[in-house]
C-alpha cells in the first residue's frame, strides 16, 4: 500500500494546491484528482511553447473539485481591477480568513530570491497557499507543488504578486470535505480523456518540422521549447493514478514498478527530445531531425500505453461497484 498522506511528487501547481487542502484537512484520498493532469492545458505564444498564458483558465479544475469533494472554490482575483486593488483584496482575505478558508495566489517566483528557482525561469508564475501568522508583516507560505513551507515577508509576497505578468488567485471554502462517489471518479477520468490523440507531441512535431524547413529560424527552436520541462513534469500525474489503482485493486508491486518505469521513460523521452532540439538549434545540423522525430514517436507510443493500462485498471476498479449495483454510468 502506498497510501496518500506522504506522496510528494511535483506535477502541477494549481492541482497540487487543491489536493493539499484535501490531504491536510481530511482523510479523503485526493489522488483521483490528478487524473488527466498529464494532458493539462498549455499555450503557444509568439515565443513558443508556454506553461502559462492569460488565456489559460482553471474553471474546469475548480468545478470538478467542487463536484468531487463538495468544497467551494471562489475566484477572488478580478482581472478588471488594477494590481493595487487586487493586492488589497489579497491582504483582506489572508488577514481575515476563518480556519476553513485557504487562500491561493499566483506570484512570480523569480521575485522570491530566497526560494530556489529550479526551472531558472523569469518570469516564473506559480500558484501557492498563503496564510497569516501571529507576527505582523509575515505570512506563512505553503508551496504544495514544490513541497516547501515556511514564513516569508508579506511585503515580498505582495511585490511578487503585483509584478507578476499573470496574476491570479482563488480561495477554497473547506467547511466539509467529502469523498467522491465512484460515478464521479469515472466521469472525471473520462472528461477530456484522449487515448488516440496527443496534443503535446503533435504540436512539438509540427514546430520542429516547420523550423527545420526554414533553416534561418532554427536558432529560435531552443527558446521556443524552454518551458517544455515544466510541462513534462505533469506526466508524473500518471504516477498518482497508478498508485491509486495499485492500492485500490491490491495489485502486485511488480506491476506498479513496471508502469512507474514507463512513466520515467516517457519523461526521459521528452527530455531527450528537448536536448536534441537545443543541439539542432545551436548547430543547424538538420540530419538530427529524423532521430528527434523518432524520439517523439517513442514518447507518443509510451504515453498511449500508459493510458490504455489506466483505462483497463479503471474498468477493473469500477466493475466492483457496478457488480454491487452502485455504478450507474456507461463508460
Automatic annotation (TrEMBL):
InterPro entries: DUF6005. It holds the Pfam family DUF6005. This is Petrobactin biosynthesis protein AsbE.
